[in-house]
Amino acid sequence: MAAPSATVDDNFLTHEKGILSWLCTLDHKRIGLMYLICVLSAFLLGGSAAMLIRAELWTPGPTLIDHQTYNQAFTLHGAVMVFLVIIPGIPAALGNVVLPLMLGAKDVAFPRLNLASWYLWVIGALCLITSLITNCADTGWTFYTPYSTTTTTSVIPALFGAFILGFSSIFTGLNFLTTLHKLRPAGMTWFRMPLFLWAIYATGIMQILATPVLGITLLMLIVERAVGIGIFDPALGGDPVLFQHFFWFYSHPAVYIMIVPAFGVVSEIFPVFSRKRIFGYKFIALSSVAIAVLGFLVWGHHMFTSGQSIVAGTVFSGITFLIAIPTAIKAFNWIATMYKGAVHLDTPMLYALAFLWVFSIGGVTGMFLSVMSTDVHLHDTYFVVAHFHYVMMGGAITALMGGIHYWWPKMTGRMYPEKLGRIGAVIVLFGLNLTFLPQFVMGSRGMPRRYYNYLEEFQPMHQLSSLGAFTMGLGFLLVAYYLLRSLKTGPKAPDNPWGGNTLEWQTTSPPAYYNFHTPPVITEGPYEYADWTYDAKVGGYVRISKQAKS
Amino acid sequence: MSHATAPSHDADHAEGHGEHYPFLAHHFDTPEQQFETGKMGVWLFLATEILFFGGLFCAYSIYRALHPEIFEYAHYYLDTKLGAINTCVLIISSVTAAWAVRNAQLKQTNMLVINIVLTILCGFGFMGIKFIEYSHKIHDGLLPGHAYHPAEPVWELPIYKAKYGEEGAAAEGGEHAATGEHAATGEHGAAEKGGEKAPAEAKHTGYVKPLMGPHEFNREPRDVQRFFSIYFCMTGLHGLHVLVGIGIWVWLLLRARTGEFGPKYFGPIDFAALYWHIVDLIWIYLFPLLYLIH
After folding, report:
1. pLDDT for B91-147, tens place per residue?
2. Of A15, A176, B3, B107, which is most buried with the most CB atoms under 10 A?
């Protein structure tokens, strides 16, 4: 359709005004920003719960809160961080903003469905949070039966919230998959797609194939609790382990729903800040898909101690090892991308490098846990806690932070203060390691997870861990402070501050309402930087050919 | 739902630049692209539906594999005749739905309206019969979990007696353990004779062989309520989908009456029909799995 008669100042932020123009918008960029605001608010809530947990664990026994409140706090922390922050964080928030831009499309395939997903997210989030806070659900985020069917706290609203959130996630995945298939402009072949889009594609497959199973599982659990149909209740002939199978059939792929988009983000950051074409493009692209496929076959490694057969355990363990291969392919390709590149240590790159280190620690300790014999020792200890925080916090959240900084100029049209950005990144990284490294040690010495009380010999470790958590909290507050301030006082962002060659950098910052004033023509891959050169007057990169012409 | 958000066109000459398509959304280049996109969205949605039901089918298979006797026993409580009628009703409605797509493509507005009305009527017919079935179940106490209090055991049911004969059905009364002299071979001829079974041994030793045979139920297996858990979950969720489908058809009926659909724009009818077919298909699996157990 005809491009809007737009002046240069007309962009998606100023195109329409008023709160209703946001709440009723069908524009993917605005929906993405609304997701971002919500996700970061949830992050604040989940983070506060984490601070409360770490403060409580400063001393053995009661410190600040009683044990029931403590159970609620870790349930709140886990459920909010998993369902409200990490799962929608990169795909729904950043993905919504940049996916059509990177693809060269005007919008996602189903804009109204996209807005509906956001509303579903809000409804689900409100259900989940209010039920966790007011009704004191204390099951942990995994809702394991038989505890979740017998506890006296009210679990149904929390389950219902997670159920709704699942559908939000399904519809987002469906929308993105369809967009990637059907809205590619001429010239945008599969292997010219930026790697972030490949990651979103793999994520979409998992969202569509795994999340419905969580939906039906939660629905069965709701019915079970409401009327006692006994599908998971041994007293009525049901099987509680069946719940675990169903739950992990979703929730293991969900782990990759959380981390694969993070791979996508750092795959964008590494080549741009190394000024060098990505190494092994096809391998990185297809390894995302390989992870998506293998991710469906490993759910049993969460259940080594749930009484499944040794044969099943061995198979699950073996396939789990296999997942290390595509993951390592990515890591080595990122390193090879930096090799002999002109590495710029801007904030997004700092987060990407942090990701590489921290995620590798998380990944390698995952191998300890996928060995059945060591898992029996480490199961349900702080070792597991440290492992998945290194992956989720160190992986997904670090990449989310990197992505937010990387696309901040594009999303808001403002630059954040670079120096504060670097300081923030270093503080967060330091706090992260200080929090979770001691937990590996504690866990391998037998400190069980989720415990309110602990032996005195663990106190120094717990205090180190708490100090790290507080440091990290301060770091995030600093990040929040300068990002919010930059909205008002930040210098205007150039169109291409980092010199990226993906399509979102070839429109204005912030983009026009219909994304591109003239439809982009795609003639080369997304990681060719020869045409771009830094222009100090603009404060960003410009095309050499354009300069030569003028 | 995806079909609601993806109005689309089928255009014979999409590249006709001058032509104006009232339903073409701004982010599509051609009506064809819009239709293709909508169609893919619906197919993906149907994939999620299959996985959604897949959880229940998985639970069904596991419990049936572990405890086949429960399913063989409890299925006698279901009314095969009503189930069969419902299957026919849904298949007919799928025909009218498919026909409606053709009507929309050919812009036969009157036939389109008639076919949509027929589809809706079939949907209501299905739900009506389901209502009758459910009320019988509730009346007879055939409910999941703790609510399971059957009014009468299977061997007292007329269906069971008609099939295996009065004598064979009631042979041992309700108190005694069944015997396994005739293993689960399904010899109906033998079943007719019924009384031939040799209960003496079991009576004296107290040894209970597993209840496997279709004619051997003179004692209730353990945890029969589990069948009704699965039954109500599966048929209930399916019924909910039929209701949603009826809602979609009513909405499309209102739109169809204005003559909105034609060769250039029939996507919504097509997508609704696809959804309706998948709901139909799920029932076609549910019917034998729940009603026709042998």
Report:
1. 999 999 999 999 999 999 999 999 999 999 999 999 999 999 999 999 988 888 888
2. A176
- Pick among B20, B27, B35 to test the A interface (most A CBs inside 10 A): B27
CB B2 within 8 A of CB B37: no
- pTM for the full predicted model: 0.88
Q: Say which residue, A226 or A417, is predicted with more confidence.
A: A417
Nearest CB among A175, A183, A209 relative to B51 is that of A209
Residue carrying the six token digits 């922050």? A85
DSSP state of A85: I
Bond into A510 cis (ω within 30): yes
Nearest to B43 by CA among B278, B282, B279, B280: B278
Any idea which residue has 């006994």 for tokens? A230
A217 to chain B, any CB pair closer than 8 A? The answer is yes
Q: Would you say residue B165 has pLDDT above 70?
A: no
Contact A236 B26 (CB under 8 A): no
Task: Name beta bridge partners: A381.
Answer: A448
Residue carrying the six token digits 């629905």: A219
* Residue B235 at interface with chain A, using a CB cutoff of 8 Å: no
Q: Which residue of B has its CA nearest to A176?
A: B41
Please tell me which of the candidates B41, B223, B229 has its beta carbon nearest to residue A174. Answer: B41
What confidence tens digit (pLDDT) does each residue in A359-384 have? 999 999 999 999 988 998 999 999 99
Q: Where do we find the tokens 């199973």? A: A213
**A4 contacts A513 by C-beta, under 8 angstroms:** yes
Separation of alpha carbons B178 and A63, rounded Å: 62
Instruction: For helices A398-412 and A347-370, give the axis angle rounded to 10 degrees.
Output: 150
ipTM of model: 0.89
Sign of the C-alpha dihedral, residues B127, B129, B135, B141?
negative
Hey, what amino acid is at A128? L
In this prediction, residue B26 carries a pLDDT of: 83
Write the pLDDT tens digit of every residue in A504-540: 999 998 999 889 888 888 888 899 998 899 999 988 9
Residue A531 contacts B, CB cutoff 8 Å:
no
For A436-460, write each residue's pLDDT tens digit. Answer: 999 999 999 999 999 999 999 999 9
Mean pLDDT throughout A386-411? 96
Asked if B55's CB is within 8 angstroms of A220's CB, the reply is yes
Cα–Cα distance between A544 and A382 in angstroms, integer? 53
